């Protein structure tokens, strides 16, 4: 009974922390939002979109926001392989009754050549048509216009004077001005990625080419940079948790988005910690992704799970969480503070499992949409709707798994003095 009572108190504290974190962050997404990501093949890769979703689910585990991917390779403002623009918008956006839609188009619209005024005029008028159509169908919609992601003219020489990314930057300026005119949110997914490419290229030119391998479609590292740019445009908080402990007393000096209990210990220090969020899982075992992270501020701006312990007596300590060794630190490092999000903690492993479910449910939706709905949309077979309903039900089951997997758990921390 005592154990159950303690667990119940921790659970209530978690719910309070989650609500407080959401309210205080100023984050763009709100409870009950439905987000549709609309775009071309870069959105169709389902990478920056799934990074954004996993960030949301792990950082705000009770916010109840849903996500739909509606990117189609080759698309321009007039549509493409999935149909003309009005069909695409009705079937792949409006039908989901979203509260938020992101739009990223432009890579194909410039036709991979020097700036062409006629192509640009087509882009501008087509983009405005998309906004008018969505506003008319969904009057309360919040739109985020995404400036086109870069064509990599950094790690390889431009194909013509000035390079294609300079063309995309001109398109980006139009998108920014249109957003300002219409009172819409805008996100720049070009400038920060180019800056990271430049830094990565200076550090390791061969590996830097793998961040955007074909110069158009980013690998996971490039998509992580893009996700970070979108999240920052949405005012995503950097903080996962912050806990500061004075070991000399011992006492909790500060705890943000976390509850610390059972603090004590002889010789070392131990406590139980229940956080209001999980860190965003970043797989730095992938070399190009690790280079992209080192060349950017992704960790500093989005993934800070700080632990600071002052007043320690021994010169060195081993940190264990739930009995697993997480790292070895000097007392000076612990007094300055360490970022748990960058370590192999049980929380990071839990968040990675959440991301696996994010990918799984997005893949189910893709199969439903691209392999059943669109190919059979003109064939009135009763089994088509049954197949879609079954896949929708399966995706809903996986989303429930994902949300359950994202709920933080209490963990036992130990700082154990190390012998020289």
What Rg is obtained from the alpha carbons, in whole angstroms?
24 Å
Largest sheet: 5 strands, parallel
Helix content: 40-55%
- Could you state the order of secondary-structure elements as H and E? HEHHEEEHEHEHEHHHEEEEHHEEEHEHHE
The CATH topology of the domain at 27-237 is given as: Rossmann fold
Low-confidence stretches: 1-24
Shape: globular
Please report the first level of CATH classification, the CATH class of the domain at 27-237.
Answer: Alpha Beta
Q: Structural class per helix/strand content?
A: alpha/beta
User: Within the largest sheet, what's the order of strands?
Assistant: 2-1-5-6-7
Distance between the termini: 43 Å
Strand content: 15-25%
Q: Tally the helices.
A: 14
- Mean pLDDT, to the nearest integer, reads 94
